[in-house]
Write a structure and sequence with these properties.
CATH architecture of the largest domain: 3-Layer(aba) Sandwich
Largest sheet: 6 strands, mixed
Helix content: 25-40%
Strand content: 15-25%
Radius of gyration: 24 Å
CATH class of the largest domain: Alpha Beta
Structural class: alpha/beta
CATH superfamily of the largest domain: Zn peptidases
CATH topology of the largest domain: Aminopeptidase
Distance between the termini: 21 Å
Mean pLDDT: 95
Low-confidence stretches: none
Strand order of the largest sheet: 1-2-6-3-7-16
Number of strands: 17
Length: 461
């Protein structure tokens, strides 16, 4: 089999009329700042997408019942028995503030050395335009679709998909029954293989707050008075073993263990190990687990307790000899199937009381449940086989990823097999400065989606 080179894909991208049209749409999308966390641009971008999809021939509905409007765009096949593919997306992005270095303005699309840059180009606006391009290319070539195609696009994914469950409840009767749901994004791995995954971890985030006195106290009393700082540090340490496992009663008993196929997929397709992490991140501290099988199980199938940030006491110049009266930590637990966000938080609170730290206040901030698939649905197997024809290094099939998203929410409402794959690369820098995708990957994804659409013409998988 002969595969196109990167340069050949770039040349096709540059000369393809439909692709270039929607690349200009992407340029406008990137320029339209839409950040749920800052309540910026949500209505404007949702309605701009409505205009774009209507112009492309879709039947569009914009539901603005909640803070971020929910966009549904449907392309119908003339075949009354046609199956349905759903593309799930989000039009919100994380901020791009002064704390992140960008080579060029983050909300301006730029192209350099075979890469496309801009906030949201990978996560997730670039995927919207690439997949819409594939639909329009197929319609231009064939005149009709062999499969119904529905885009559902939310505006709060980067803020725990606020209100998505409510939108899906309002529309699930209409949206249920799809043959396949293609997730928002994905990437190629370090070996150039396309990752096709079917799950993600859940999360519960919360603040831990301690108040030990009305005011800070002179540190000469440190031998007889406990401070908020030490109290919080000891409370945190009591929840986690030295190997990283959580010391919370009843937690691991709730976990849904991976089946044999899910373990085999990881052992077959995951190349990376702890040495790769040391190289990528320049790690100075030893890893918590090194055995390959234990590493895979811990990373993909077990929870993790993480400190996102901490604050206590004097942080200014010089010295201030005090016992801090207040301390806080921003916390998260990455969840796996079987663990419910608020139940996990309740278990942590009970454990702290049992450990003697009843003065710690826990404040829930957000939560999402996790989802996992063994990737054996016929429609997903069809995607896997087609993708092999586009990536010389092959594919990497994963039952889950270690990241977090609303897969469980979507699956629970729509009950369609989910596969995540896309235009990203190992250095796409989602949520960071100089977020990017490769032009060749962008165009290859267009061709792949178009071929998946074409496969429904015979429905022979």
């Amino acid at each position: 089999m002969v595969f196109a080179t990167e340069q050949e894909q770039i040349e096709k991208f540059q000369t393809d009329e439909v692709t270039q049209h929607y690349f200009e749409v992407l340029r406008t999308l990137i320029a339209k700042k839409s950040v749920f966390a800052q309540q910026v641009g949500l209505y404007e971008v949702a309605h701009y997408l409505g205009e774009i999809f209507t112009a492309a021939g879709a039947k569009v509905q914009i539901d603005d019942a909640y803070t971020a409007p929910f966009v549904i765009a449907e392309f119908k096949s003339s075949n009354p028995k046609a199956k349905t593919i759903i593309f799930y997306h989000h039009y919100d992005t994380v901020p791009a503030d002064d704390d992140q270095p960008w080579t060029e303005a983050p909300f301006t699309l730029s192209v350099h050395y075979g890469h496309i840059y801009g906030r949201g180009v990978d996560d997730d606006k670039g995927h919207i335009t690439a997949r819409l391009t594939a639909v329009r290319r197929y319609l231009k070539r064939m005149g009709d679709l062999p499969v119904n195609i529905t885009f559902i696009i939310e505006g709060a994914e980067e803020s725990a998909s606020t209100d998505l469950d409510k939108y899906l409840k309002r529309h699930r009767k209409h949206l249920r029954g799809a043959d396949l749901l293609v997730w928002e994004q994905g990437r190629t791995d370090a070996s150039g293989r396309l990752e096709i995954s079917g799950g993600n971890k859940g999360i519960v985030t919360f603040d831990m707050v301690v108040k030990s006195a009305d005011v800070d106290i002179h540190s000469s009393f440190g031998g007889v008075i406990d401070s908020a700082s030490w109290y919080l540090l000891n409370a945190l340490a009591s929840l986690r073993a030295s190997d990283g496992r959580l010391l919370v009663d009843g937690l691991y008993e709730e976990i849904k263990e991976p089946n044999q196929r899910e373990m085999e997929l990881l052992e077959t397709y995951v190349n990376g190990d702890y040495k790769e992490l040391q190289r990528i991140y320049g790690l100075e501290l030893p890893l918590l687990v090194k055995d390959r099988k234990d590493f895979l199980r811990r990373f993909y199938f077990e929870p993790a307790l993480n400190i996102e940030g901490m604050g206590t006491g004097y942080q200014g110049k010089g010295v201030k000899t005090i016992l801090p009266a207040a301390a806080f930590a921003k916390m998260e637990v990455r969840l796996v199937p079987g663990l419910e966000p608020k139940d996990v938080l309740n278990k942590i609170e009970r454990q702290l009381h049992k450990n003697g730290f009843d003065k710690v206040e826990l404040i829930y901030t957000l939560g999402e449940k996790s989802y996992r698939s063994d990737m054996s649905a016929p429609s997903i197997l069809n995607v896997i086989e087609i993708a092999k024809n586009f990536y010389p290094a092959g594919v990497s099939v994963l039952p889950t990823t270690a990241g977090t998203g609303p897969m469980h929410t979507v699956f629970e409402a729509l009950e369609a097999p989910i596969a995540a794959f896309g235009i990203g690369n190992p250095n796409s820098r989602d949520h960071g400065g100089d977020e990017n995708v490769k032009i060749a990957d962008y165009y290859t994804h267009i061709e792949l989606i178009e071929e998946i659409i074409a496969s429904y013409d015979s429905s022979n998988y």
